[in-house]
Amino acid sequence: MTVRYKCRHCKTEVGSLPFESVKDTILLLQKLDEKEEEHFLTYEKDGAMAVQCICEQCQQSLQKFPDYYALSKWLQ
Ligand SMILES: [Zn+2]
Questions:
Q1: In this predicted structure, what is the pLDDT of residue 75?
Q2: How far apart are CA 47 and CA 45, in angstroms?
Q3: What is the pLDDT of residue 33?
Q4: How far does residue 49's CA lie from ligand 1's centre (Å)?
Q5: How much is the pLDDT for 17?
Q6: In this structure, what CATH number is given to the domain that contains residue 9?
Q7: Is a pLDDT exceeding 60 seen at residue 76?
Q8: Judging by DSSP bridges, how do beta strands 2-7 and 13-18 pair with one another?
Q9: 6 CB contacts (<8 Å, ≥6 apart)?
């Protein structure tokens, strides 16, 4: 199985890794997901797992315009 890394802001697929190589991270995220309101781990329609992260482009925008991202997060 493949785990996809997707940007939580623009939904771009940042990359994908085989489940075996990210197993420890997934287990950690599953524990976090139970407590956190914001989900780090989501499931795709085809059953694949997707880890919510942030791409380089959004990271840069976020540093430049933090207010815009705070706002767009609430509007979604
Ligand atoms: Zn992005």
A1: 52
A2: 5
A3: 74
A4: 18
A5: 94
A6: 3.30.1490
A7: no
A8: antiparallel
A9: 12, 13, 14, 42, 50, 51, 52, 53
Number of domains in the chain: 1
For ligand 1, an ion, list residues with CB under 5 A: 7, 9-10, 55, 58
Range of the domain at 43: 2-75
Q: What distance in Å separates the CA atoms of residue 38 and residue 34, rounded to the nearest whole number?
A: 10
The pLDDT value given to residue 72: 62
Residue 7 alpha carbon to ligand 1 centre in Å: 5
**pLDDT greater at residue 44 or residue 73:** 44
Give dist(CA 22, CA 14) in Å, integer: 15
CA–centroid distance, 10 to ligand 1, in Å, is: 4
